[in-house]
Amino acid sequence: MSHAAAPIETSAPLGAPASGAWALRTEGLSKAFTLHLQGGTRIPVLQDVELEVSPGECVALAGPSGAGKSTLMRCLYGNYGAGAGRILLHHLGETVDLASADPRLVREIRRDTLGYVSQFLRVIPRVPTLEIVAEPLVARGEPRAAALARAGMVLARLNLPPRLHGLPPATFSGGEQQRVNLARGFAPHYPVLLLDEPTASLDAGNRAMVIGLIAEAKQRGAAIIGIFHDTEVRDQVADRLFEVAPIQEAA
Amino acid sequence: MSALLEATGLTLRFGAVTALDDVAVSIWPGEVVAIVGESGSGKSTLLRVLSGLAGPEAGTVLYRDPDGTVHSLLDMPEASLRRLHRSDWGFVHQNPRDGLRMGISAGGNIGERLMAAGSRHYGAIRAAAAEWLARVEIDPARIDALPRTFSGGMQQRLQIARTLVTHPRLVFMDEPTGGLDVSVQARLLDLIRALVADLGLAVLLVTHDIAAARLLAHRIVVMRRGQVVEQGLTDRVLDDPQHEYTQLLTTSVLSA
What we know:
- The structure holds 2 protein chains of 2 kinds.
- Chain A has 8 helices and 10 strands.
- Chain A is of the alpha/beta class.
- In chain A, a hairpin with a 2-residue loop joins β5 and β6 (94-97).
- In chain A, α3 runs parallel beside α6 (174-186).
- The longest helix of chain A has 17 residues, at 204-220.
- Chain A is globular and about 50 Å long.
- Chain A starts with 23 loop residues before the first strand and ends in an 8-residue tail after the last strand.
- Chain B is of the alpha/beta class.
- Chain B folds into 2 domains: 1-88 and 170-256, 3-Layer(aba) Sandwich (Rossmann fold); 101-167.
- Helix content of chain B is 38%, strand content 25%.
- Chain B contains 10 helices and 10 strands.
- Chain B has helices spanning 43-50, 78-86, 96-99, 106-116, 122-135, 152-164, 182-199, 210-216, 234-239, 244-251; strands at 5-14, 17-27, 32-36, 58-64, 70-72, 89-92, 170-174, 202-207, 219-224, 227-233.
- In chain B, strands 6-7-8-3-9-10 form a 6-stranded mixed sheet, sandwiched between helices. In chain B, strands 2-1-4-5 form a 4-stranded antiparallel sheet, with helices on one face.
- Chain A binds chain B through residues 33-37, 74, 78-81, 103-104, 106-107, 124-127, and chain B through 28, 31, 186-187, 189-190, 193, 215, 218-219, 232-233, 235-236, 239-240, 242-244, 247-248, 251.
């Protein structure tokens, strides 16, 4: 794995004012799953991952299928708990460790600092598309009217026609749902944004639109970490690759 | 900021059955916490103890009032506890009959709780009742109808209106979608989700419905045989369950 890089020189103290050039940094991040229903089988997936991403930089996770790219993304969002190590972020001017943050702090970090666009939209019954996209903006304290206006603009940019904005996305096509998901992820301007296959179900025109959104986010100083199976998209947005290699099973 | 309600060391036995075994939970302002587990896991007993409806054999429950004063629930005089239930707190029962008065009108059910909290102006009470009926998607024209003429889903929505009309800070919900058809459940869940977000309520929700917990709760507490076996951020507990029982629970669910 490429994380056999330089040793950590200065482990950032938690709670200290944000400093350093990175926007996200992992130290010794490891993750294993223990399957209690399969006789306690232990499956190590990540070991000592050292990843550092700067503001304005887009890093693409690379590696064969099953190497742990998605697991790493989910750990970085706090969706999977880290088995060991730290996940450092600058949150509201302080250095925080997502890996050891309590649930309330994780929610705050997700509200203000860390965005995630998954492959699939988790549809909330009966909630109109425009509200779904505006919700993270309202949660940050943006006035409702302004949040709805911005949500409508981002949806329109992603070619989702206004006649769909008032409908719940449950009946939308895969590509339309993906664009709702993208709008929800890009509208709030998170300092750190995680993208899991953001263009998987999009046509060429919408792919180009997403590439444009990523470029703009980088311009703003957002740090982006993504899984892009589409190498054409990847080559256009990524500044570098971060290799995630399968863990060698101990003999 | 600190916890609104905080319980530690709760223990309660019914004969040979341990309903609560050294349970510790807390809930913070604006937080929705789901207590999940199978029947008999102790989750409903826990809700009753946390809301002062039942006393534990051991343990403490602390409640912080709006002035910041911390009260020990178990040492609280009966009258103070009743006052708390009328104003600061709400309780939504699984069976609407337990939370409604079936012999008085829909508007009366909502108005009664307002009056118990001190409202006296008839016109204002009736207006508030009509407004809350609309908010829970019941035609305000039914304001004088008796709840027994309502469907199960409507009765449950009426119970929610009656509970929320006084703007409680903390609401206890015991299987609020329990006895309802699936389509009615979805509507009710969405209504609860929207109201909780709008009002910034803290909610302690007991449910065996994992999908409902995922939709509503910020945090999940998993119980089995009177013990908390795992608790944490909702999506982490459900997607990366650590305890054997939570793994069984999450893999037993049919995803819709």
